[in-house]
Amino acid sequence: MPSVQLSREQGFRYSGAGRNIVAFDSSAELVWTVSDSPLAVDSADPNYYLTLLTITGAIYARDVEKRLYEIDPSNGEIVRTLDNTTLPIAGKDVSIGGWVLNVVEFGEYVVVECAGSDAPSLYGFNKEGTELWRADERRGTVYWDGNVLIEKVERGPRVESHYFYRLDPDTGERLAEIEVEYTVPDYEYVADISEDV
């Protein structure tokens, strides 16, 4: 069995190939290590879990190949593996046009940010897994500040500034260009700038 070595200087070092998700309790005791490595990839590079996501109460890891793995939070067991165009939401497996980048949940809404060449980049769902809307054009990154759904859009590949919009969670429509305050690692709505979007 792979082992975890703890030290004050370096945090911890894990010796298991690809099994890079570990859980600790509040006293820093190792509780579990994810049960399985991600599936093999077709390249010489090793596969590993890249991102952790929660979607309607369940925990998922995304690997280098963009597949999702559902993880049992009580013991680290991989419950199932999903291909990279399947969104598990509210007990359903919904086919989407790309792979899941980010999920923002608030109230009765689940907004999913996707990537892929021909994929809608934003989807809106309710907590029951019913699709409310999807963006027809390339969209930005979404944030929820506790009151407002915010979209951040890059101005250009070589420009260090952004546009920010307030979105309608029922339709995905941009309601207004807005001013925001950066509140690491998110953004907080300050005021509408223009309703001309």
- Quaternary structure classification: single chain
How many beta strands in the DSSP annotation?
A: 19
Low-confidence stretches: none
Q: How large is the count of helical segments?
A: 0
In helices, the fraction of residues equals under 10%
Structural class: mainly beta
Radius of gyration (Å): 19 Å
Give the termini separation. Answer: 56 Å
- The strand line-up of the biggest sheet is 15-16-17-18-19
Mean pLDDT: 88
How is this structure best described in words?
The chain is an all-beta fold. The protein is built from no helices and 19 strands. It has strands spanning 4-7, 11-14, 22-24, 30-33, 49-55, 58-63, 68-71, 78-82, 86-89, 92-95, 99-106, 109-115, 122-126, 131-134, 141-144, 149-154, 162-167, 174-183, 186-194. Strands 15-16-17-18-19 form a five-stranded antiparallel sheet, with no helix packed on it. A four-stranded antiparallel sheet has the order 5-6-7-8, with no helix packed on it. The protein has a four-stranded antiparallel sheet with strand order 11-12-13-14, with no helix packed on it. The termini are far apart. The model has no long low-confidence stretch (mean pLDDT 88).
